[in-house]
Amino acid sequence: MTKSLFHNYFNLIDTNAILFFHSNAALEWLIMRVEAIQNLTLITSALLLVLLPQGTISLGFRASSKGIC
User: Fold this and answer.
1) Domain range enclosing 41
2) How many CA atoms, within 13 angstroms, populate the side-chain half-sphere of residue 55?
3) This protein's superkingdom (predicted)?
4) Within a domain: residue 12?
5) Does any domain span residue 41?
6) How do residues 1-22 score in pLDDT, each as one tens digit?
7) CA quadruple 19, 22, 25, 27: dihedral positive or negative?
8) Does residue 28 lie within any of the structural domains?
């Protein structure tokens, strides 16, 4: 009786641990892919800003000698 109870108990714990492991592995895989896409987007936009000719993008405001405005 006791052996069967322990066997069932360890089997349930093992099933829970397997699901937890696979859930964490899938989450880490997703995080790596999202971070790679973020890095690619940041590098691409930074390169475009550096390589575009001067004056292509307006600053959006004019700076004067007294400050902004």
Assistant:
1) 23-49
2) 0
3) Eukaryota
4) no
5) yes
6) 788 888 888 888 888 889 899 9
7) negative
8) yes
